[in-house]
Amino acid sequence: MKAEPVLAKLNDLRKDAQGEESVEEAALHHAFCYVSYQAGPFAEFVEKEKPPAAKKNTPPGERAREYLEALKRLRDEAAGDASDMEFIALDRAAGFISRTLGDFQAYLDEAGEGR
């Protein structure tokens, strides 16, 4: 599977959640921004199932964990059909972020989301 449709669906989910002012909205926004920023490693993860390597030595904080859990909840809600693009996008984003949670925290710190 190519990474572009996964990113496109994640972007659609982000847009659909705009205005909700919920943890899910924030999680989708930051997940999309983060995996877009990590486009090369994310593409290898999606297309070649190559596990990403953490690059920063930042310990994950509460906010990173909260957003990851929100993505997992959304993924579980969409889990009825494993071939559905919504499930695939959420599954790949959550899988990538869970393997680079410290880097995701570093991104959140830079974005002003802090701990």
What is the strand and helix layout of this fold?
Blueprint: H1 3-17, H2 23-37, H3 39-48, H4 62-77, H5 85-99, H6 101-110
Protein name: vWA-MoxR associated protein middle region 5 domain-containing protein
Pfam families: VMAP-M5
Domain vWA-MoxR associated protein middle region: 1-109
Entry keywords:
mainly alpha, 6 helices
Q: Based on helices, strands and strand pairing, what is the structural class?
A: mainly alpha
Number of helical stretches of at least 4 residues: 6
Contiguous runs where pLDDT drops below 50 for at least 5 residues: none
Whole-number total of structural domains = 1
Which strand-content bin applies to the residues?
A: under 5%
Helical percent range?
over 70%
Overall mean confidence score, pLDDT: 94
What profile does the largest beta sheet have? none
Strand count: 0
What is the CA–CA distance across the termini? 34 Å
One letter per element, helices H and strands E, the order comes to HHHHHH
Can you walk through the features of this model?
With 115 residues, the chain is an all-alpha fold. The chain has one domain (3-110). Helix content is 70%, strand content 0%. The protein has six helices and no strands. Helix 1 runs antiparallel to helix 2, helix 2 crosses helix 4 and helix 4 (62-77) runs antiparallel to helix 5. It is globular. The model has no long low-confidence stretch (mean pLDDT 94).
Provide a quick synopsis of the model.
This protein is mostly helical and 115 residues long.
